[in-house]
Amino acid sequence: MRNLATDISDKLLPRISRPGQYIGLETNCRWPGRLSEKQPGVAVMLAFPDAYGIGISHLGSAVLYHMVNSIPGAAADRTYCPWNDAEAVMREHSLPLFGWESRCAVADFDIVGFSLGYELCVTNVLTMLDLAGIPLHWADRTEQHPLIVGGDALADTPEPLAPFFDLFIPGDGEKPLTELIELVRRAKANGQSRQQTLLEAARTIESVYVPALYRPRTVDGVYLGLEPVRDDVPREILRAAVANLDESPVIEAPLVPLAEAVHDRVVIEVMRGCPNGCYFCQAGAARLPVRTRKIDQIVDAAKAAVEATGHNEISLLSLSTSDYPYLEELIARLSEEFTPRHVSISLPSLRVDSQLRLLPRLTSGVRKGGLTIAAEAGSERLRQAIGKRITEQDMIEGVKAAYKAGWRSVKVYFMAGLPGETPEDIDEIYHLCRRLSDARREVDGQRGAISASVSWLVPKPHTPMQWFAMRDGEYFLNVRRRLRDISHRSPVSFKFHRVERSGLEGLLCRGGREVAAVIENAWRDGARLDTWDEFFDWPRWQRACANAGVDFEAIVNRPLATSSAQPWSHIRCRQSHEYLLSRYHKTSEIVAQQDGPAQDPIQPSPRS
Length: 608
Prior knowledge:
The chain has 608 residues and is of the alpha/beta class. The chain is 35% helix and 14% strand. It is built from 21 helices and 18 strands.
C-alpha cells in the first residue's frame, strides 16, 4: 500500500485553511499496526462523502469502524470528502485520496465502503472516487481496483448511483459486511477474479445488490422493473436487519474529533427502528422491526465511553428516543451514575404526547436545551392523513410540562406540500405555533419562544406516500411567502428549507439509472458539497438535467401508478407492498373528504 504521509505533511497541510481536519490519529483510533506485509488481511476503507466535521459524528460509520477492527485479519481506516481548498491542492500536486489514519492511498484498499446517508452527498462520492484514482463507473474498473460498496439510506433507492457502485448493502450493514470481508479474504487467497467475487457475493450474501447483474426493462418507454441477467441471482433484495440490537457493537471508546464536529459527545444507540409508522417517513418504514438495547449494556457503554473520551455529555440516540420502553428506568440509572460527575444526558428526539407530561420526573437530570416537537402538519386532519398520531392537546400539555421542567424554547418541525393541503392548513401551522407559545403563560405569565422549521414534502420510496406527486417549486415559494406574511411581528420565527434542494432530493431518490448521467454532468460542471449553502448551485443541476435529457418534472412532480414497478421495487423492506398500499388509500380517503379541491393553490396572505 502506498504510504503518502510525507506528501500529506509537506504538500497538503501547510496549504489549506483547516489542516486539523486532515491530521487523523484521533484518540481511540484503531489502525496503527493492524495490517502489514507480514500480517496481510482485508483492508477496508470506510468513506463518508461529506466534510470531516459531519463524517466523524456519524454513528453508523463509527459502528462499522469498531466492528471491522474487531475482526481478526481485517482493518478499517476512514476517509472523508476534502473541502474545496484541499481538493484543489491535492489535484495540483497529484496527491491521491488517503486514509486518515494509515496515510495510505484509498485505491490500495480491498474494499471502499461509502455511507450514503442523504441524497445531496452524491457528487461528493464522485469527487472521492476521482481523487482516489478509481474509475467512476464499475464497467471501467479492473482487477487492481477495490470493490466500491454503498450502504445506508441511499442503498434503499440505489438506481441513480448504480453505474458508480460495484455493490450495495441495503439495511443494517453489520452481518452482510462481515460476510463480504470473509468472502474477499477467500477470494484473495484463491486468486479469484473481481467479477467472480461480485457474483459470489450476489449469490451467497443476503442483502447484497450488484447492479452489473441486473438491467432495467422498459416497453414503449414504460419502466417494468429490473431483470437479472442470470438465473442464479435473486430477483428481489431483502433489506438487512440485525435480529437483536445487543448484537450490534456498542462503542466503548469513541473517536475524539481533532477539529470542530457536529456532535462532540458520547452517542449511544438505544433503539433501532420506530414504532410510530408515520406514512411519510422512509427511515421509520425501512428500519423495522423495532429493536432495543438492554439498559445494563447502555449504562456500561456510557461509563466506558466517558472514561475513554473525557466527554461531559451523553446523547441517547434513536429515531424516537421517547419510545424506548424503559426510558424512565434508563434515565434514572444514568442520572444516578453521571449527575455527581457533572455529565449531562441529552435526549435529541423526544416525542410530545402523553408521555412527555412526565417530563419533570423523567428528565430532572437531563440537560435542558430547546425542546423539539415534530408536529409535521398544522391541522388535525392532515396529521391524521399522514399517520402522525399526535393531537394538539398532546402538544400543548407537553410543552406546558416542558416549561415547568425548565425548558424555555421550543422548536417545531412542519412539512408543507402534503396531499390535500389547503391555504387554511398552512395558516394552521402559524396558529398552532401561537397556541404553543401562549401555553407558557399558564406557567410563568410569559410567552414561549417558538422556532418553526418548515420543510417541503418529498414523497419518499418505501412509504405510503411514494405514489403521490411532489408539489412544484412555485407552490412551496407561495407557502413560504404566506407564512412569513402571517407571522409578521409575532413571537413565532420561521426557517425554511431551500425549495430547490428539496426538489433535487426528490429527483435523486425517485429516479432510475438515467439520473446517474445528471449526477455525473453536475459533478463535471463543478457540483461539490451540495449540502452546504455556499456551494449549492441549482442552475448547475438544471443544466445537468437538460444535458442528460432527463425530465425533472416527470420524475418528481407527477403521481405514480400503484400498479407499476418503480426503480426501487427490487429492494424489499419489512413492510409489504399491500400494507403500504392500504395506508396510501387511507390517506387518499381522508384527503377526499375535505371541502374543495385537493390541490388548492397557495397564495400569499395579507399581513395580519
